[in-house]
Amino acid sequence: MITTRFTEMFGVDHPIVQGGMQWVGRAELVAAVANAGALGMITALTQPTPDDLRKEIARCRELTNKPFGVNLTILPAIKPPPYAEYRQAIIESGIKIVETAGNKPQEHVDEFKKHGVKVLHKCTSVRHALSAERMGADAISIDGFECAGHPGEDDTPGLILIPAAADKVKIPMIASGGFGDARGLVAALALGAEGINMGTRFMCTKESPIHQLVKERIVANDERETELIFRTMRNTSRVARNAISTKVVQMEKEGAKFEDVRELVAGARGKMVYATGDADEGIWSAGQVQGLIHDIPSCAELISRIMHEAEAIIRSRLEGMMSGGKRQAAE
């Protein structure tokens, strides 16, 4: 058993989080993660309305009696979702853990804190982590350049970003972006984090509510199978490499604006990828960690394996190196 400030604060057995993922963070996946002793997150905006979110939370409660949370991502939009209504649905449903991401979440943090909800804020830079700490977030999820989705515009990989944040952030911190196995967990703990967040790895589990063909595509892909779209618009997003993402990158190089690619990158098309299994149907998120994913286990198998292997790395490999050094010194 590995106990950290994160596991103690959030009341989970293992320092592993399944963060918010659009179209993927549904009750069946979240409950499976929770039942395995890690922290799962329902993605609020996957649900079309706040009432649908209430129903999804209730559905998750039927599948687990362990703690789970809800992700609320606040991004600039032409027609923003009713964030305050989603927030109210989360509070009224008795959820006690929320993952926030995106724009400054001050009003949301204030409201959640009033109702005794713990806030884990996801960010991509040390300055934003410190800002979230000042805002009253209980913990930070620091997201390196390797991640799926939005890595920010600083291009700082986890190997630098995690210890840089750990030097300055006082509240517990989860490492995110590029994590998928026990080696990553042990490395994150060594770098100063209190656990890891995994997205792409949890997409590729038995309980993940996406098409089997997409899971098989993730297993087949290596670490090079991603594209960075919206670079020219300073809204970078790491997605799986396919016919559409490659086309978007090419169009951007030729000076395309968002209006020119809007139809190609529409969320409805990305949702169809997960429904039909056609990986070229639209844009879908996946990180460089694809290169470390070689199977499609259940969430229970995955989490158990990571924890057992992490303990073995710490006890055998790392401690063995220490005792080896002592032997040489004695000789």
From TrEMBL:
GO terms for molecular function: monooxygenase activity. Keywords: Flavoprotein, FMN, Monooxygenase, Oxidoreductase. It holds the Pfam family NMO. This is Nitronate monooxygenase. It comes from the Bacteria. It comes from Bradyrhizobium jicamae.
